[in-house]
Design brief:
The chain is α/β, with parallel strands linked by helices. 48% of the residues lie in helices and 16% in strands. The protein contains 8 helices and 6 strands, in the order βαβαβαβαβαβααα. Strands 3-2-1-4-5-6 form a 6-stranded parallel sheet, sandwiched between helices. Helix 5 links the parallel strand 5 and strand 6. It starts with 5 loop residues before the first strand and ends with a helix.
């Protein structure tokens, strides 16, 4: 499977609001320009899945995009544990719950600078924020995958910052979120 691959993880409902077309476009740039074998794992299901599969096909990355479908909430940490970076292109995320999960797993986040990400992600500390541009997003991912030291530093920042969002606060919100998904 994924042993020798670098894994980019994105979790959540596959809906319009996640701006996943942008992610696929960025991923196409990443696969063309990254020396390593990279996979994009989309964990979740939703109304735009068929459309996204078609887009992945037409961008020539279908073989490298993994659609997991609906995942049991309890299995989610396993996915975080096996990923190298968490990627998020949504611009509508109100509070970055998924960010907090990623950070708690020590996963650096590359995200589009937007509402929810700005509150949770501090660029250069626990992740990287980019403009809503597939090329720039791709460059951020590629440079992080190439720079082990920077990635480790961001992972450290990720874990540190996660402790600020106490579990008690989040549990209720998380459950509500997953119920809705």
């Amino acid at each position: 499977g994924l042993k020798n691959c670098r894994v980019l993880l994105c979790t959540g409902r596959l809906g319009r609001e996640k701006n996943l077309t942008l992610l696929l476009q960025a991923f196409a740039v990443i696969t063309r320009n990254c020396r390593e074998d990279v996979r994009l794992m989309l964990v979740g299901s939703g109304p735009v899945e068929t459309e996204l599969r078609r887009q992945a096909q037409s961008l020539g990355v279908a073989g490298k995009v993994i659609f997991t479908g609906k995942i049991n909430y309890h299995e989610i940490p396993h996915y975080y544990g096996n990923a190298d970076l968490f990627v998020m292109t949504s611009t509508t995320e109100t509070f970055g719950l998924v960010f907090v999960e990623a950070l708690a797993s020590g996963l650096p986040v590359v995200a589009v600078k937007a509402g929810g990400s700005k509150d949770t992600i501090i660029s250069g500390y626990n992740g990287i924020l980019t403009p809503e541009d597939p090329q720039v997003f791709a460059s951020a991912v590629i440079s992080l995958l190439a720079n082990e030291e920077q990635r480790r530093e961001l992972a450290r920042g990720a874990r540190e910052s996660a402790t600020r969002y106490s579990v008690e606060n989040l549990t209720g919100e998380l459950l509500a979120l997953y119920e809705e998904a």
